[in-house]
Design goal:
88 residues, alpha+beta, two-stranded antiparallel sheet, elongated
Length: 88
C-alpha cells in the first residue's frame, strides 16, 4: 500500500472565539489558554459529512496526480456520520 496524496476540506463558515464570547460567558483568551482553539468551522444546514468528504477526496486525488479509477480504496473517518447506526 502506498499513500500518494491526502486532502482535507473545511466549510467556509467561521465562528471565532470573539463571536462565542457574545453568546456565552467566556473570552477568546480563556478558550485559547484551555483548548488552543481560535476559531471553528460550521457547515450550512443540509451539508453532510459525505459532502465534505467528496471535496476532501477530490483534493487528495489532485494531490496524488491521479483520478478515481487509479485508486483501490479510500480511508475516511468522522465523528459525525450522515446516518447513525442503527439507522432510524
Amino acid at each position: 500500500m502506498v499513500i500518494r496524496g491526502s486532502g482535507m476540506f473545511v466549510p467556509e463558515g467561521v465562528v471565532t472565539n470573539q463571536r462565542m464570547s457574545l453568546l456565552m460567558d467566556t473570552t477568546d483568551e480563556w478558550i485559547r489558554q484551555r483548548t488552543g482553539i481560535g476559531e471553528r468551522r460550521y457547515a450550512r444546514k443540509g451539508t453532510s459529512s459525505s459532502d465534505l468528504g467528496v471535496q476532501a477526496a477530490q483534493r487528495a486525488l489532485a494531490d496524488a496526480g491521479c483520478g478515481p479509477r487509479d485508486i483501490d480504496f479510500v480511508i475516511f473517518a468522522t465523528m459525525t456520520p450522515d446516518h447513525y447506526f442503527p439507522g432510524n
